[in-house]
Amino acid sequence: MHSPPSRRPLMPAVVCTAALTMTAACGSPEPTKQESRAGYPVTVSNCGTDQRFDAPPERGLLLKSASVPYLDAIGALDRITAKAGVYPKAYYNADTNAALERIPSLTDKIDSSGHLQISKETVLARSPDLVLGHTDTVNPKTLASTKVPVLEVPALCEGANKPPTFDDVYAELQTYGKVFGKQQQATRAVTSMRGELSKITSNVPDRKGATAAVLYPTPGGGTTYAYGNRSMADPQLAAAGFKNVFAGVAERVFEISPEQLLAKNPDVIVLLHNEGNPQEIERAVTSLPGAGRLAAVRNKRIHVQLFNFTEPPSPLAITGLKKIVNAFPTVR
């Protein structure tokens, strides 16, 4: 599933995500099994651990929605035989949602901060040959004795501290292509996504120094989190022409007070969420003490979008960028 602020709010047929209309890999002819095994074994480094594959995975198990757009882009959702967590339908088109529905769900139980609750035993009972995503109970350490490869989106690895870029999305697509024996599909998808990103940014107006903040609020008066320069929010805002008011913070996500937000006073605010209606998410910020003094609130320049449209780095971040650009077409 997605991974909001860490310990804080932190397909038989080849199908394509509606949000990823730029993906050119869909409909590509599949290699034969003999051809797809030709380049194996392959080893990829992930979260500081080498993961070896002796053949293309055939019994993948999904623990996070963050991997879905990568699988979708290279036509590998048919290699997933079980899933756990939550997979919001708004991320995908009808075909992709139908494919996800066909994948048996082990559990959708998450805790109050959005983290999946599942045991190692439940996962291993499915005999996976690949696990996509880490949890507290299912990760390379807990599965080390089983030799089952485990891959996480690099930005969500424990201790990850590298400022992300859109190039990270392209690199991760190539990694998925290597793992699943779909390098050609991955290369075509990268070329298409680069073109889509260029098309979006070419339509961004000169913002003349306009500022923005990306926040993860907690409805009902809980903690508000902001995203710094170790999050995909930073390059996404830059591509949309905005200056991230928290760009000076070398963290992915961190708590902020209403006073800190007022001091930064961004011209626009982007709110991320995993569930709940957008109005409820917006009220979580507009009801903060002193929120009426925020320029973004006064001028009604608040945009709400689902978490994976910004975090972590994935093809969905390109779609999320387009949503931000469209939400603020004239802000300067």
UniProtKB/TrEMBL annotation:
Signal peptide: 1-27
Listed PROSITE patterns: FE_B12_PBP, PROKAR_LIPOPROTEIN
PANTHER family: IRON(III) DICITRATE-BINDING PROTEIN, VITAMIN B12-BINDING PROTEIN
Origin superkingdom: Bacteria
Protein name: Iron complex transport system substrate-binding protein
Record-linked InterPro entries: ABC_Transporter_SBP, ABC_transptr_periplasmic_BD
Domain Fe/B12 periplasmic-binding, first and last residues per copy: 59-332
Classification lineage: Bacteria, Bacillati, Actinomycetota, Actinomycetes, Micrococcales
Keyword annotations from UniProtKB, A to Z: Signal
UniProt similarity note: Belongs to the bacterial solute-binding protein 8 family.
